[in-house]
Amino acid sequence: HGKNSVLVLRPADSIETTQCWKMAMENVDTPTALIFSRQNIAQLPDGTDYTQAEKGAYIVAGSDENPDVTLVASGSEVSTLVAGAALLREDGMKVRIVSVPSEGLFRSQCPEYQAQVLPAGVKKFGLTAGLPVNLQGLVPAHEGKVWGLESFGFSAPYTVLDEKLGFTAENVYNQVKALLN
């Protein structure tokens, strides 16, 4: 981390939260911001190596070798990608899911690790409940697209908002199909 920077961590589920809490306790150099979700979130697939959260981004268990598309998110959106990936796999697509609790930490890894997690030339789809720019550093426009929000302040139960704003497995499926055609 640079001087005066903040370690920002946005965990994807309760186990990743425990890992991020450990990282926060061990970070004695800068302040740490932990960004949580209020809604209930499905756990990431069994076998996920949560210790890799320390690298800022990592491949979630159950991801396919030589993927047709890499799905990228942080926080609660990762479990939405897992659900969308199940629909894409029904169509015979190979899918990789990447959880990014900390883009800053990921950027500090060696280029080889970054390329291993997010290889160039593989189509990418990012999902963020924030501004699309939040993920555009990891999902370059020439390799894919980011689904995000351009406005804030909507008020409704999260299940209603997710449906209206496209934070669903079905929308992940539809966006990725459009991207690959």
Report on the architecture of this protein.
The chain has 181 residues and is an alpha/beta fold. 35% of the residues lie in helices and 15% in strands. It has helices at 14-26, 77-90, 103-107, 111-117, 133-136, 158-165, 169-180; strands at residues 7-9, 32-34, 58-59, 69-73, 95-99, 123-127, 144-147. The protein has a five-stranded mixed β-sheet with strand order 3-5-4-6-7. The protein has a two-stranded parallel sheet with strand order 1-2. Strand 6 (123-127), helix 5 (133-136) and strand 7 form a beta-alpha-beta unit. It is globular. The protein starts with 6 loop residues before the first strand and ends with a helix. The mean pLDDT is 93.
Q: In short, what is this structure?
A:
With 181 residues, the chain is α/β, with parallel strands linked by helices.
Number of DSSP E strands:
7
Given the helix and strand composition, which structural class is it? Answer: alpha/beta
What portion of residues is helical? 25-40%
The portion of residues forming beta strands comes to 5-15%
Major beta sheet, specifics?
Answer: 5 strands, mixed
Count of helix runs: 7
* Oligomerization: single chain
Uncertain segments of ≥5 residues (pLDDT<50)?
Answer: none
* Order of strands across the main sheet: 3-5-4-6-7
Order of helices and strands: EHEEEHEHHEHEHH
Span between termini: 39 Å
Radius of gyration: 16 Å
What is the averaged pLDDT score?
Answer: 93
Shape: globular
